[in-house]
Amino acid sequence: MRHIFWAASAISAFAGIVQAGPYAPAAGQVGSTAIPYNDSRFVGWATGGTLVRGPQDINNPTGPLASFGVLSDAFGSAGTTTTAVVSLGDGGFATLTFDQPIRNGPGVDFAVFENGFSDTFLELAFVEVSSNGINFFRFPAYSETQTTTQVGGFGLLDPTNLHNLAGKYRVGYGTPFDLDDLLSLAGPTLDLNHITHVRVIDVVGRIDAAPGNPSYIPSLDSLGRVINDPYSTPFASSGFDLDGIGVINQVPEPSILGVMGIASGVLLRRRRKLV
Predict the structure, then answer these.
(1) How far apart are CA 248 and CA 245, in angstroms?
(2) In sequence order, what are the residues at sequence separation of 6 or more whose Cβ sits closer than 8 angstroms to the Cβ of residue 29?
(3) What residue spans define the domains of the chain?
(4) DSSP states along 29-65
(5) Along the chain (275 residues), what's the average pLDDT of each consecutive run of 10 residues?
(6) What is the pTM of this model?
(7) How far apart are CA 85 and CA 167, in angstroms?
(8) Which of 61, 176, 258, 259 is the most buried (most CB within 10 A)?
């Protein structure tokens, strides 16, 4: 986020923004896909993971890294507190794991939570999944935000211009992801019914070249369009602020009866071989 301690009164001054994009609107509006953190569909939350922080400013890649929060702030249930988050920094990422893998079930399968202060005061991230912790596959993501003018560090985004980008919704509401979107990629290195890792990667919103970082390439959506995200955010709380990942469709734990059934089947096959 631009600054964790940005006053709520200052945010309200930017309340007006025309929403006219093709995608789902903000939380609470008709047609929104936002899922509240206390939705009864959640059956699990992230319990572990790793963190790679990005710099506070991609134009100064050797400068200070984001430092607000700790990785464990992204474990367990999300909530409505804007400070119980871990900041990723420009281009930083967190890879979270779960007690039980995520599976491709009916409807959406999991949701990612950020701490946006309002329906338009947002920051974005790509989301990728893996079933082996090695090969990661990115959800197709789309941004129709204009790219003529840079969205400033305290600028606003229209959620109806955004799809499959974490951070689309304000604090307390998760952006849902459906593993059906990755069906064409399923195969030996991606088991959609056994997702063990979810990676959240900060979208660096700078839309032009960075003189201080010649290797910088603007973030692109799945159609090759530049993603305009608030920049710059040179604070300890720079970048996407991860609050949690809630699981909706989960691989069930093996029951005691199921284990006993398997054992009985093995013993029966062995006896038949001996006869």
Answers:
(1) 10
(2) none
(3) 8-274
(4) STT---EETT-TT--EE--EEEEEPPBS-TTSTTSPB
(5) 45 51 98 98 98 98 98 98 98 98 98 98 98 98 98 98 98 99 98 98 98 98 98 98 98 62 45 40
(6) 0.90
(7) 13
(8) 176
The letter for the amino acid at 92 is G
Token pair 């201080």: residue? 212
CB burial readout 180-212, b (16+ within 10 A) else e: ebbeeeeeeebbbeebbbbbbbbbbbbbeebee
Cα separation, 204 vs 219, whole angstroms: 6
| Neighbour tally for 166: CB within 10 Å | 30
3-class DSSP assignment, residue 258: helix
Which residue, 42, 41, 91, 56, is CA-closest to 244?
42
CB 72 within 8 A of CB 244: no
Q: Which residue has the tokens 């008709």?
A: 30
CA distance from start to end of the chain = 69
Q: 52: alpha, beta or left, given left = phi > 0 and alpha = psi -120 to 50? A: beta
pLDDT, tens digit, for every residue of 57-76?
A: 999 999 999 999 999 999 99
Report the number of secondary-structure helices (H) and strands (E) in the chain.
2, 14
Which class in CATH covers the domain with range 8-274?
Answer: mainly beta
